[in-house]
Specification:
Layout (H helix, E strand, L loop, with lengths): L1 H20 L2 E4 L2 H9 L6 E4 L6 E2 L11 E3 L6 E4 L8 E3 L6 E3 L5 E3 L2 E3 L2 E2 L6 E3 L4 E7 L2 E3 L2 E2 L6 E3 L7 E5 L2 E3 L2 E2 L6 E8 L2 E3 L2 E2 L9 E8 L2 E3 L2 E2 L12 E3 L8 E4 L2 E3 L2 E2 L8 E3 L4 E4 L2 E3 L2 E2 L7 E2 L3 E3 L2 E3 L2 E2 L7 E2 L3 E3 L2 E3 L13 E2 L2 E3 L2 E3 L2 E4 L3 E2 L2 E3 L2 E3 L2 E5 L3 E2 L5 E4 L2 E3 L8 E9 L2 E3 L2 E3 L1 E10 L2 E3 L2 E2 L5 E4 L6 E4 L2 E3 L6 E2 L7 E4 L2 E3 L18 E5 L2 E2 L9 H4 L5 E2 L24 H4 L47
Length: 622
């Protein structure tokens, strides 16, 4: 017990000694403020009185560099005398206001106005980098500027800088010719508001912020790179560069509204180069680029649980997001790319999982271009030219376990171009135009309740390049033309597919006459239509297909509302086994986990595997 008492006594004595040395000084004139700050010792508190506001700095005020300066190693507290920062205003009159040569300072309850410098940090600049301990809280920075970065606040060094923790501050109308219209290289930003800050350089970054370890619960409105920036710049609100001071970076719980970049700069709200950056639980509304990619976000490693709406990459790619490694659990609605020869109204060159993608618009590829989609729902996306949903700008798209709903195409227009699908559902779409064009690989997919138009429309159109395929798909209760204008021969292999209850121009036909120009083979399929005489003989030779209407499909129907086209054990799709392929050993049916694609080494026809099978009965007598 005595040992602990000695320790606590030593701490108490040390603390009393420190506070004994510290002094609190109240000031109410510019001269007193300059004297108090320049002569401060470690731990001193300077209270700037509201009665002296505004504090107007003149050309002769300050140190030799022309600013209010803490030139010692002292860590001080500088605060306004009230909790309202507008009560105490420090006016730089085109001079930098505060220069810090120390770490661990506390600055609060002040307004910094019209600070300016040929360098970094028009209001506050730190010479001691990195500084993780200085706290700037409840302050306002307005109309400050700099030439090299950090219109309001920044570090004296450019490379791997990191200065300050900003809490509940407001930055308005600040600007720089460098990067970070308001802040360059912060450590932490929490609960702050950034409005109409600007970068006015063609090669710089971050209309409001360039660099931070974390940005939490903050609001960004109307920030910009306001002159014709180049593709090497970007981030209308935030740019996150690589920085050795922290291995990861986070933007969380923030809102980004009407931020923008001009010229070919990408990332209307955020551009990220930091490989550890994660954007989480943020909202992006009305952000934009002109000729740059990513109306809201560009080149970020991870974006999750965010909402994107009404963002626009006017003359480029990715109305909401572009070049994002992983987008998960996001809502991407009503974004656009509007000019001709633009792609990806929702996203471009992204990998998405668990996202809702709806009502996006593009010249081509309304939902996504050159992207991979997993467990996403796509609904009512559109295009003015082609590829209302997914398509190719350079590589094409892939979708797995996705649902496509309520897409309304247009006559003579393509819905999907150069895409692969695995375990996807196409439900209740009024496609009108050509559904799958150029190249398609469909596995374990369901198409039900959809229609194409009476003319210049079909499920397949203009297949070319490498062979397309439909394997273990269920095509049921649709009204369509099967194919149109597919002039290249032997372009589609159909295997283990279940066609039932489909109509072509009112007649019960599964595959129509134009198929003869491009089908390579139809193997182990079920076709319910009585008349499939249009199928070419060469396509069905040496195969085991079932034709006709003299059978019941064996769907479970209302017994499984989520999967009404799954199979009972009496279905001909179960009785007649399909052709087994290597990929099936580790695969599931369209329902996913818990429903293996093979049962006793056999595969059922269509996208469902029946597991409601009666096993043999064993009776044991004792």
């Amino acid at each position: 017990m005595t040992t602990y008492n000695k320790i606590f006594t030593a701490i108490a004595v040390a603390g009393l000694s420190m506070f004994a040395r510290a002094a609190t000084t109240s000031v109410s004139t510019v001269a007193d403020l300059i004297a108090a700050v320049s002569g401060a010792s470690d731990g001193d508190e300077i209270v700037v009185m509201a009665s002296g506001s505004p504090y107007e700095f003149e050309s002769t005020d300050g140190d030799a560099n022309g600013h209010l300066s803490v030139t010692t190693t002292a860590s001080i507290t500088l605060r306004g005398s009230t909790d309202n920062p507008s009560d105490v205003v420090l006016v730089g009159n085109e001079k930098r206001i505060l220069y810090l040569a120390s770490k661990g300072n506390s600055i609060s309850n002040l307004t910094f106005r019209s600070g300016s410098v040929s360098g970094r940090g028009g209001a506050i600049c730190s010479a001691n980098n990195p500084d993780y301990t200085t706290v700037i809280q409840n302050c306002v920075f307005e109309s400050c500027s700099s030439t090299k970065g950090g219109g309001a606040c920044g570090s004296a060094t450019a490379s791997d800088a990191c200065f300050g923790n900003y809490i509940d501050c407001t930055f308005s109308g600040n600007s720089t010719d460098g990067s970070g219209g308001a802040i360059q290289s912060a450590y932490s930003i929490q609960g702050c508001t950034f409005v109409n800050n600007r970068v006015i350089s063609t090669t710089s970054y971050g209309g409001a912020v360039s660099g931070a370890h974390e940005i939490i619960g903050s609001t960004f409105i109307g920030n910009s790179i306001s002159i014709a920036g180049k593709s090497s710049s970007g981030g209308g609100a935030v740019y996150m560069p690589v920085n050795s001071q922290y291995t990861d970076a986070t933007i969380s719980g923030c809102t980004f509204t009407a931020n923008s970049v001009s010229g070919s700069s990408p990332g209307g709200a955020i551009r990220g180069a930091h490989e550890g950056l994660a954007v989480v639980n943020c909202e992006f509304v009305g952000n934009s680029t002109v000729s740059g990619k990513g109306g809201a976000v560009y080149e970020v490693p991870s974006v999750s649980s965010c909402v994107f709406s009404n963002n626009c990459a006017t003359s480029s790619y990715g109305g909401a997001l572009a070049n994002v490694a992983l987008v998960s659990g996001c809502s991407i609605v009503s974004n656009a790319v509007t000019s001709t020869s633009t792609y990806g109204g929702g996203v471009y060159d992204c990998t998405l999982t668990g996202c809702y993608i709806a009502s996006n618009y593009a010249y081509r590829c309304g939902a996504a271009a050159d992207s991979k989609l997993y467990s996403c729902t796509n609904e009512a996306n559109s295009a003015s030219d082609n590829y209302y949903e997914l398509g190719k700008q350079s590589t094409g798209c892939y979708a797995e376990d996705c649902t496509f709903l309520n897409t309304v195409g247009a006559r003579d227009k393509k819905i999907f171009g150069t895409s692969g699908f695995n375990g996807c559902r196409f439900l209740n779409n009024d496609f009108l135009g050509y559904v799958f064009a150029e190249y398609v690989a469909m596995t374990n997919c369901l198409m039900a309740g959809s229609t194409t138009g009476p003319s210049k429309s079909a499920i397949f159109y203009d297949l070319k390049g490498s062979a397309s395929s439909m394997v273990n798909c269920t095509i049921v209760s649709n009204s369509y033309k099967f194919a149109a204008s597919c002039t290249t021969a032997n372009m589609l292999d159909i295997k283990n597919c279940f066609f039932y209850g489909n109509k072509i121009e009112g007649a019960t036909i599964d595959i129509d006459s134009s198929t003869s120009t491009f089908v390579a083979s139809i193997k182990n399929c079920i076709l319910s239509a009585a008349d499939n005489s249009y199928i070419p003989d060469y396509a069905t030779s040496d195969t085991l297909n079932i034709y006709g209407t003299a059978f019941k499909p064996g769907f479970v129907g209302a017994d499984d509302p989520e999967n009404p086209f799954s199979l009972t054990r009496r279905s001909p799709a179960v009785v007649k086994a399909g052709l087994v392929e290597d990929w099936m050993a580790a695969a599931t049916d369209i329902r996913g986990e818990g429903f293996p694609r093979l049962r006793d080494g056999k595969v059922d026809i269509g996208c469902y595997q029946c597991w409601n099978i009666l096993r043999g009965l064993t009776i044991i007598f004792r």
